[in-house]
Amino acid sequence: MANNNKWARILVYAVLIYAVIYYLLPLYVMITTSVKTTEEIRTGNLLSLPMHITLDAWRKAWGTACTGVQCTGLSLYFWNSVRMVFPAVIISTTMGAINGYILSKWKFYGSEIVFAMLMYGLYIPFQVLLLPMAQTEGYLGIAGTTPGLIFVHVVCGIASTTLFFRNYYVGIPDELINAARLDGAGFWRIFFRVVLPMSLPIVMVTFIWQFTQIWNDFLFGLVFSSGDSQPITVGLNNMANTSTSVKEYNVDMAGAIIAALPTIFVYVVAGKYFVRGLAAGAVKG
Amino acid sequence: MKTLRMTLCAAALMTVACAANAAEVEVLHWWTSGGEAKAAGELKKMLETKGDKWKDFAVAGGAGDNAMTALKTRVVSGNPPSAAQVKGPAIQEWGDQGVLANIDDVANKNNWNKVLPAVVQNTMKYQGHYVAAPVNVHRVNWLWVNPELLKKANAKVPTTWDEFFKTADALQKAGIQPVAYGGQPWQDSTVFEDVVLGVGGADFFKKAFVQLDQATLKGATMVKALETYKKIKPYTDKNAAGRDWNLATAMVINGKAGMQFMGDWAKGEFLAAGKVPGKDFLCVPAPGTAKSYTFNIDSFIFFKLKNADGAKGQNDLAETLVSPEFQQVFNLNKGSIPVRLDADMAKFDDCGKESAKDFATDNKSGTLVPSFAHGMAAHSATQGAIFDVVSQFWNDDSMTAQQAAAKLAAAAKVN
Amino acid sequence: MIQSTRPAQYGFAERWLPRLVLAPSFLLSLVFIYGFVVWNGYLSFTASSLLPRYEWVGFHQYARLFANDRWWVAVFNLFKFGVLFIGISMLVGIFLAILLDQKIRFEGFIRTVYLYPMALSFIVTGTAWKWMLNPGLGLEKLMHDWGWTSFTFDWLVNPDMSIYTVVIAAIWQSSGFVMALFLAGLRGIDDSIIKAAQIDGATLPRIYWKIILPAMRPVFFSTLMILAHIAIKSFDLVVALTGGGPGFSSDVPATYMYAMAFTRGEMGLGSASAMMMLLSVSAVIVPYLYSELRRGSR
């Protein structure tokens, strides 16, 4: 029995490690390619380790690669994305928290309808929104600016953040709220003193989710920004599609990793909160 | 008051750029690869000497697909860029929306009606007024050849489709891949359009792609053209799907493939690789099309702007684009020829010279045809529908030429 | 369940405050989501081409849509893609979650590795995938280099198979996320149930099959909803990997709609296709939301 068990465990580990390799393969290819020279990429194969490690491609992707007449690499786009992502994430998460709180603990006649409406909004193909949104932003005078882009991300993010918080808050016992009410606490006081302190796991989940969604977005970035507010995904696309006769795969890959670093960082650092937060209630249907 | 400031500024221009009144010119373009980006850089420099500030709005990828999406949303939001890279009948489509600015003043001042060929003038006008400035003329029906490989296979440069397939066979026997091909919809159609022109001739081409004549599209000649087109497929490699045009060109440059059908922008790639025309590579008209010319004119359209300063920048840009200096520098970099009739071709290579000569001859003989694959012949909806058919036919080996011809005719009816 | 609100105990302000606070979100989604959907629905009955034009043409655009080969290719592709992607991601995710739940060493590391693809945009990883799947550069070349010359893997450039490469990449991206959702669900199950079953002599696979998985029904449902949502909206993935090609063999409705409405002046047709997408999504989502809300109000 014990022996049998040992073999089973070895099998489990083997499968898990096999899966690790499968998931890491594209990242491995990206990283090794980014430190190879173009010459080595042409002659070598996909999986071979680099013979000499060079960071030239990284330097070029960050600082000197040209798109059009601009030779600023990705650095400019990177900071554009940073300026855009934090306000958008913070605003949409805050709104989601308050909405979730209302829709679970302060239900009123019609609140369920509001919830259903928000949920349905999750499934609408966002391409539908591009033109009318552009027109509206034109009226508001924020077209082609970073605030305009933030606005779009907030509008489209409210549905998912609300869903996350609402499902989490449904799990908080109503007795807690009622007790606070008997103590005379009002709407905001209960939120800040009772509900919010219990919300760390779900805040983390929402933060991670929104951060990756917004950082990785390409479509909105493409149409709701102009020359000097374009986010990194648009910059990367410009760079990767800009080719002379020799395609510099190493620069493309280095650029791709630069674009991915913030989200990878967030997952590695906060990944355990993500699973914990999901366990704490976000997955309850 | 304003006039005074402008006058002062004009005076200041003589000595030093007038920074205080610098008009910002935002230009949407997708000139991001090698020679093109260099050419765009020249434009920026020239504008800056006129005291304008260049605001780059480059959107790469998908042969301008992404750029068009960005442009549409910008126009809808009431905040269009100063100018955008738009060409052919699409200029008329934008004109219909009532968003284009009239640049007749610049055109008259610079004698565009004299220096530009009639066919170019007509493309740039909407309801009789200039709304766009041309930058170059591309010839699309070129065949790029690696002469060394042909020699090795003991094959000769083809001038007809029969010869083409003989040459291809010879190359294949010698173990050389005959055709470098990029399987993207616009490239599929670029090759197909060469075949149509070679098989059917200029009149047939116009009937099919400009007039969208149903009988022509369904007819026996079109079926023959489709069959000929499909015959090319065995001479390409299976990795062709999705390949960028410049990577296909690189195959000819590096001796991995014998020939490529592509417009003259491919020349920029050869030159950038240090190859010499006539020696390391040959440019010949695509088989059967020596006596005709598919043209593709790049141009910029100008949008109505809210502020007057913007208009000044636009005028400067339009003037610069057509100026002899810019035409020369730009086209030397891009591989195309200048649009001006009075252009000095001395600095251009043989391919450029031949292109300019043929453009003038074909202009007279009426064998100048607008490139369908590059949006010079039909509206984008029709063009797209026909692209779908051509690419489907190329990729789907179970579709017959008759079926494809019927689909072509149906696609031409979309509007 | 106790009724959660007892407004009678509160003053006027407290009763209206929730509505007031919720109002901005409500208005934003009413105007910017639903308003725009209605506008789009209107456009689908017009002759809009390059930009919106309000000339009524009835069901003309829908008739054209249904007569269009490319649309049907896109629809069937979504069907194939959806079934395979959801099915396989689910299986792989559940399987890995169960394995990871066996008190594995380095669990944190392994979990992060499984999860990270979700963090990356396909604009980022598309290039790497395209490269690995390309017969001339990637896996096929690698196998040939290693001496297995008869190996062929040309799905990316084969019009009959290209949609399946999208499936492979999509599973890579999302199965780790499914794993995380199920792992979270597994962690929520009381250990004592398992202990008790073990004492009764049940084997571990049997416990999972008979007791644990049935208890995960809600997780199963929400995962299904999330995956369906990803499948229907998949756009970046297709654009980055195949560009809808070769030809239009790997088009899906989202890329079709984008191509028509934006790159090809066919706004009316694009709007009609968007409405068809919305209608089919509604057929799935509305009953789900309805049952959700009924359950919630019980």
Automatic annotation (TrEMBL), chain A:
Membrane association type: Multi-pass membrane protein
Q: Which UniProt keywords apply?
A: Membrane, Transmembrane, Transmembrane helix, Transport
Question: Per the database record, which ranges form the ABC transmembrane type-1 domain?
Answer: 78-270
Q: Which PROSITE patterns match?
A: ABC_TM1
* Record-stated family: Belongs to the binding-protein-dependent transport system permease family.
PANTHER family named in the record: ABC TRANSPORTER PERMEASE PROTEIN, GLUCOSE IMPORT SYSTEM PERMEASE PROTEIN GLCU
Name of the protein described by the UniProt record: L-arabinose transport system permease protein AraQ
Native source organism of the sequence = Amantichitinum ursilacus
Gene from which the chain derives = araQ_4
UniProtKB/TrEMBL annotation, chain B:
Superkingdom of origin: Bacteria
Give the signal sequence positions: 1-22
Record keywords, A-Z: Signal, Transport
Q: Which PROSITE patterns match?
A: PROKAR_LIPOPROTEIN
Where does it live in the cell?
Periplasm
> Can you supply one Gene Ontology CC term for this chain's record?
periplasmic space
In which family does this protein belong, per the annotation? Belongs to the bacterial solute-binding protein 1 family.
Q: What does this protein do?
A: Part of a binding-protein-dependent transport system for a sugar.
Protein name in the entry: Probable sugar-binding periplasmic protein
Q: Kindly list the organism's lineage.
A: Bacteria, Pseudomonadati, Pseudomonadota, Betaproteobacteria, Neisseriales
UniProtKB/TrEMBL annotation, chain C:
- Keywords linked to the UniProt accession: Cell membrane, Membrane, Transmembrane, Transmembrane helix, Transport
The cross-references to Pfam families, in alphabetical order and at most eight, read: BPD_transp_1 (PF00528)
Q: Which residues cross the membrane?
A: 20-42, 71-100, 112-132, 163-186, 207-232, 267-290
Q: Which CDD domains match?
A: TM_PBP2
The record's subcellular locations are: Cell membrane
Q: Which gene encodes it?
A: ugpA
Q: Which GO terms describe its cellular component?
A: plasma membrane
Q: What is this protein called?
A: sn-glycerol-3-phosphate transport system permease protein UgpA
Q: Name one GO biological process term.
A: transmembrane transport
